[in-house]
Each structure stands twice: as C-alpha cells, then as structure tokens.
Amino acid sequence: MAAPLTLLLIVAVTIRAVLFRSSLAELISARVEVVSPLNAWKRVVEGLALLDLGVSPYSGDVFHETPLMIYLFHFTVDYAEIVFIVSAYFVDCLSCFLKPLDRAKMFRKQKYALESDRYSADCLELLRSPKEMFYIPLKVAMFYLLNPFTILSCVAKSTCGLNNAIIALFIFCTLKGSALLSGILLALATYQSIYPLTLFAPALLFFLQRLYIPVNLRRSSFWFFTLQYAFMYVGSLVVITGLSFFLLGSWDFIPSVYGFIFSVPDLTPNIGLFWYFFAEMFEHFRLFFSCVFQINVFFYTIPLSIKLKEHPVFLIFMQIAIISIFKSYPTVGDVALYMAFLPAWSHLYRFLRNIFLVSCVLLACSALFPVLWHLWIYAGSANSNFYYAITLLFNFGQILLVADYFYAYLRREHHLTHGLYLKKKDGTEATLVLK
Amino acid sequence: MGLLSDPNRRKALTGLLTRLNTPICIVCYLAGIVWFMGLAFEPFTLRTYMSENAMGSTMVEERFSSGERALSLAKEFDAHKRKAGGMPVEWLVKAMQSRGLEVFTQSFSRKLPFPDENKERYMVRGTNVYGILRAPRAPRTEALVITAPCSPGNTNNQAVALLLALAQYFRNQIYWAKDIIFLVNEHDLIGTQAWLEGYHHTNITGMEYSPLQGRAGSIQAALSLELSSDVITSLDLVLEGLNGQLPNLDLANLFYAFCQKLGVLCTIQGKLQRNDWDTAEGYTHAAQTMMLMVLKQACGRSWGDHGLFLRYHIEAASVRGINSFRHYKTDATTIGRLLEGMVRKLNNLLERLHQSYFFYLLPSLSRFVSIGYYMPAFGLLAVILLLRVSFPGLCHCFSVSLQPSSPGVLTVLTPVVISHLTGVALYLLPVHLQEMAVEHFPVSETEAVVLTAIAIYTAGLALPHNTQRLLSGEGTEQGWKVLKLTALLYLAVLLGCTALINFSLGFILAVTLVPITASITPHMPKALYAVVMVLLSPAFTILYCVFIYQELIEAPVSVSEGWMLFLSVISQGILDHALYGSLVYPLLALFIYPCWLMFWNILFWN
Predict the structure, then answer these.
(1) What ipTM score was computed for the predicted complex, to two decimals?
(2) Is the pLDDT of residue A280 over 50?
(3) Furthest CA-CA distance within chain B
(4) Contact: A363, B489; criterion CB under 8 Å
(5) Which residues 468-527 of B have a C-beta within 8 angstroms of A?
C-alpha cells in the first residue's frame, strides 16, 4: 500500500513539475474551463500588487478572492507552485486517511446488521469485503492526483485546489469525529466560497449518528447537539469574517466576494450553466433569475437529507457534486473533487445503469470544449451557442452520473434489506423500477 | 428519462441494437454516403442570398474607367520587374506615393525546413510594399485590404497594375469610411504571412520580419487579386483557406451579385454554373464542383493569399482571372468596376461580416449547403462507431476494464503508447533526419523528408503488435475487446472534433476509416484483411484523393505521375505545417495514424 502510494505521489509531482516548467502552463492558465474569475491566479497576482501598493485589493473589479487567501499568498507568493502541489497532496493524503475510518465504521455496521438479521440472507455478495476495501484509498488517490482535471487546475494555479483541500480537511475531521474542528473547517470552506454551507446538514447528521442521537424534532438531545454544532459553525464563521475585517480594515470584501458569487456579474463563458442565460436575459429579470439559479444549489439539501439521513457520507458526496454542477463559476477543479469520491462507491458498480454512456459523454465533452472554443473565439466561424451546447451536454452528463450513483445507492440498500433476487407475488422474477 | 430508467424498455432497446447491429451499421454507412452525394442535388440545397443589410439594398454605381491605363502600367511593371530581377520595390514605392498613398515597406526572411521543389525556394528573402489610403470620413479604426502577389516570371503583372489603378481612382473619391490598404506581397503566402504577423504583432511560425511602420485600423475584409492576362474570359472565386476555414458566405454572395450585375462569367472551382439540374449531367456537374470543394478544403492548405487572413478573423477571398478559349471576353475596366463595387459595399459595413454562414459547401455559386444539411452525413458515419461500441461484448469489457487490478488496462496501454510513439516519430523524424538521409542515400533533401515519412509509416505497420506480443505474451480475448472499445471511442471523438473544425477532412477520413475499423476482429482471414486495411489507411486515402482531384479538374494522370504528385503533396503538407501552421499533417501523424495502428494491432492480436 505504501509503496504504490509513494510511486503515485512521485509520478504525480513529476507531471505537475514538468507542466509548470513547460510552455503549456501559460496556455492552461488562460483556459476558461480551468480558471474562473473567482480563482484565476492572474487575478490573485493583481490583488497582491494592489495590496502591496496599499490600495484595497477589491478596488477595481478584478480580484475576488477572500482576504485570508490573499494574506496567505502575500507570504507564499514566491512558492506558489509548491503551495498548489502541496494542496493537491493534502486532499489526497487526507482522503487516504479518511477512507479507513469510514471503512472500520462500515464493517462494524455490517457485522451488527448481519447478526441482528436485519439484512436478508442472500445479500452476502453485496457486502463489502475487507480485501476490496483495502485498495480504495489508493484508488481515490489515483483518481484525484492523476485526474487530468486536477492536473490542469493545479498547473493553472487555480485557487480552487486550495478550496478543495479545505473541503477535504473538513470531511476528514468530520469522519474523525471532531465536531469543533469540523465546525471550524466548514466555516472556513463557507467563507471561501459560500456554497459548502449545504454541507452543514450531512455533517450534522453524521455526528448525530455517531453519538447515537436519533433525528427526532421532539427530542431535546437532538436540539441540544444541533445548536451546539451550529454555534461552533456560526461562531467560527463570525470570527473568520471579523479577522478578515481587521486584516483589511474594511468590509469591501463582502460585496466583492459574496456579492460577486451571488449576483454573477462576470459572464465569461465557463463550464457552468449561468453565463449564457445571464448574457441573454433582459436586465430587469436578473434578480429573479439569479435567485432561481442559486436556489438550485441549496434546495436539494432538504430532500436529499431526508432521503439519505442514514447515510451522511454519501450525502456529502451528493452535496459536493451538486455544488460543483450548479455553482455560479464552476471549473474542472470542482468536478475533480467529487470525481475523486467515485472509487469509494465502487461497490455500487453493479447497479449503475448509464455509467458507460455518461463516461462517453464526459469524455467527448472534454475534447469538444477546446475545439468549440477555438471555433468561436479564434476562427470566428462558430458562435456562443455551439459552446453552450457542449456546456449543457457536459452538465447533463454530470447530473446523469450523480443521479445514477444515487439510484444505485438506494437500490443497494433496498436489496440489502429485501434480498438480492426479488420475486413477484406470483413467484416470477421481479425488476426494480424507479419512477 | 423513461428510456434510461425503465429496465424493461432498456433491455428491449439494447436487444434490438445487438440483434440488428450489423444491418443497422451497413444501412447507416450507405445512408451517410447517399446523403452526402444528395447534397449536390439542387432541390436539396438552398439558394444563396445576401444576409448583411449593409451590403444588400444599397446598390452602388461603379465608375472606374482606367482599365487601359492599368494595362499599360502592367507593361511598365513587367519591365521594372525584369530589370530588378524580382520585386521592383523602389518603383512600386514611387508609384504608390505618386498616387497619394502612405507607403511603407516590410522586409522579411524565412529559411524553409527543407527546399520546396514545387516553387524552387529554400532561403526566402523578400519585401512587402503596402500603401494606405486614409479614410476621409471616419475615425480610421477599420480597414480593408486589397492584395496582389508579385509572382516571378510574367504572371500576375495585371493584378498589380490594376491594384495601382484602383488606388489612383479610390484616392479621388470621398466616400471611404474605412482605410484601404493596398498590399503587394512577394513570395506569395510567405509574404502575406510576414505582413499579417507584423500587422498583428504576433509571431507564430518563426518568421523573421521587420516591424511595420504604418498601420491602419482593424482589418474587416480582404480581397486578393490574381490576373495574368489583359483580357479574361471568366473570374474564379477561391474561398478555401488554411485548415479548411471558409470566409463568411456573404463575401461569396457579394462577388456573385456583382458578377451578375456586370455580366461577368463567374466560376467556382473553375466550373461554370449549369441550369439543368434535373438532368444527369447537371447533377454530375454540381456533384463534381462540390467534391472539388470538399477535397480542397480537406487538404487544409491555403488555396490563395486570402487563406491566411481568415486566421485573424478577417473575411477574405481570392479573385482569380481565367483566360480560356471561350469567346466571351471581359476587359480590365470591367474587372476594376467589379472590385470597386465590392470594396464600396464592404466599405458600407457597420460591423464585421457575421450574418451569413461560415460552414457551408458550394455545389455552385448560387446554391449552398449549410452545416445543418451536411452534418447528418457525417453523423450517420460516426454513429456506426458508437453502435459498435455499444456492442454487448464490448460494453461488458468496459465494466471489466474499470477494475484497475484486471489485466485489461495494461494490455491496452502498451499498444496505445507504442502507436502514439510511432506517431510522434512520424511527426518529428522526417524533418530532423533529412541531413543524415542525404548523407547516406543519393536523394535530395525534399525526397529525403518524404521518403523518411513513408518509411516510418511503413515501419509502423510492423512495430506495434510485435512489441506488444513481446511484452505481454499471447493476447487474450478480453484484451482485444478492451483495445477495440478504446480505439473506437478514440476514433469517434477524434473524427467528431476534426469534422467540426474541417468538415471535409473529417468526412473523408470517416468514409475510409469507419467501415474497416467497425468490423475488425482478430478472427478474420489475416492476409485479406491486412491488405484491405492498408488500402484504407490514411496514406492511401491521400493517394486516392490525389487521383480523384486530378480526375475532377479534368487533368487525369498516369499512375507514375500520380505517385510523384502524391510525394509532392506530402512534402507540401509538411511545409504548410512548418510555414503557416496548417494542422493536417500533425493531425494525421499524431492522432489518426496511431489510432489506425491500434486497429491494425487488433487484427494481429493472436
């Protein structure tokens, strides 16, 4: 385990170092699929320059990073490449540690359920064996570190990599069971990009499950813990925001970072759904449509939390995927984060129905993005509709992927309790239909 | 979503696709070909129309009348050209200055990677002369370009002379809202390339040039003029540019409209328009015209000076005077009027040409096929690849190959990597090894490059499967299926991207590659299929295209002449890549050929 992991790390660092030094780095860091106005390195450098001149980095409309991030780079700007590589490893190593935790818990649960006859007898082949689980951390590491999306994002020095590291750290602390650290890191992630706010629900559910507190609105222990966790979260959010205020001495960053995220004023094309709509619509519908579009990210939290309240770790995966699909300035780095989780659900593979179609769609789209960009911007022969069509297809593929995993997860749970080979009442073989 | 989520319906659909896979594929292939050939049938095409309002309704009155003076200028220019033994720079500068233009020169030099035997040049050194007519009526933020190449020998003298005559006439008019740049470039495309790079402050091809001293606004459109005789019988419009890019269709419409107005015979691909679309001859004629356009577009080179402008977002076309044996003659004054009219209409533009189509095929000048009509032909071919991918055995392999512990991934990786390394060798070695080849073999540099390319191409056929067998022993049944799945997907994505950028290239490659790649398995008679595969490989596709092209331009060649042409086409392709950044050679060498090798590998799997 350690040897292949080390080998993997060496390969990954070599690829990145080579790309950093090659002429491709400049090309990659200009790609709209890889960097967004929020996390482009070029803008961070601009913000740093303004800060050094004693001007607020948010004056002008270029810089949209959070104050803590700019102070981080203020001290490490000369080692930026190293910071980005390290942040990639951070995500990776954490996910390696995180899986065993999950695993141990899972086995305990499986054993318990088996003993109490809760699982039906013929579902043994659905249970996860320690042997197949053993390689999961390695696979997760491989999926994240060697994913071309992550590599592109890292080489472009998109600060998305750092956000990913914070989210990974949050998941790690949550699974470790440290409510305080989890609250603080969740606050930090929220502070970075607002959207991880929706991860509050799964984290809370996880802690409740861990402490054997039933999710019951009439129980005081439930409310006590919820308030406790919410307090840790909100408290650290307030502290972090206050710290930012004292660092900069002004509240400039609130409209410039969060207003920028919510009202989507920058319509540079990206792989998300916002830019085309907002470029096309009449100005006086803007508020309405930005509400409609933003609500997508937050709304699914409620039904998903209800449906998956027994499975908070899967819920975290679902939430991260939804954030990366529906956020206002998505990049491929966000996509890479939830894709790193896919090997963890390799036991769902037999229930996935469209994985082949989806892989083909995602693959084809990744190839078509640069082609259509070239036709639109350089050749001038295609137009934005061509590019947006591919964006739509790419997001359709992602949604299909997530829905497929969701369905597979539910179906596996169903089979675990009802047996693998379902019979109709008249004794013939039945099929499950999701409607 | 019902189809995707309901298992019963899914099963029915996949069952249908599996059972009827081969017939569906055959039908798709035939339908694709028939669709494509049907595109030239007139009722299926659209009539061209002027989309751009600024150029449509406002007819202009042409008054240019100094055609005779232009012809005498041509003689003078010819004399000076002979005296200078190349471009008479000083004479041109003086001539332009005396006509009231701001005149500037740009010198450039370029060493070709290997000698160009068609044009007999290796170290190219030249000068571009250009004069700017400043617009009296507008803030000089936009410009138009008229260019005439100064060719060696006594060709193209009339074009340069007409350019000067037009400059003199335009200078006296007051309605110009855009600067007009009159450019006389030396060494045809190399000069144009140097001038464009200088104008836009870029250097993408390693050309050495002196910076431009004078500059006008952003260039909106460009016309390139090629005339070699005092009277002409027809004018030919050339649209195909670098990498198969085409100018906006409105530019062709504009040319056609003025030809109609002035009664000039106009052709495209050198073919006159016929009105008898309902006869077999009429259809064949249209189909030939369209096929010529497809072949020219597919080869990705610039077919006139205009082709390089397109890269900079400048709509451009070449107008070529043809003097054949027809009785109908047009004099220089009429051509001057035609150009005057076109430039005046372009002068009226309020924004860049963007209203009309950028993706089209022209069966004749008055009819066009838009992207929506021709893409299905390609789609029908590409869908075969996807249908073969969804072949159940292959689908199952996909699930197996997802497990990294299974041998699938490794057995696939070896042939993929080896094929691509062969491709890289094919891309890099010919130009870099020429000196060594010339030392050891009695060939010239150009021959060395072409023959090395062919040698590597042929050697590649022997390499992959042998190495693969050496590394991993006998191939398994599972292995070739995974490899085929990868290769089919790869080819589908590759052809799809190619067809988007350059439809003709994508389509021609699909026609030759799809049937064999879709049907290949290791269990076929090896010798027979090896021959078929080689006959349908990318290199042979080029060879067929050469013969078909010669046939279509009514200059059929014998086999040996065809072979020589094939060799020169390869050297031109490599040169085009090095000089202007044409992408066809790297595409074929780095992607299509390795992909084809992967299928070759499947045939020899066991």
Answers:
(1) 0.86
(2) yes
(3) 85
(4) yes
(5) 489, 492-493, 496-497, 500-501
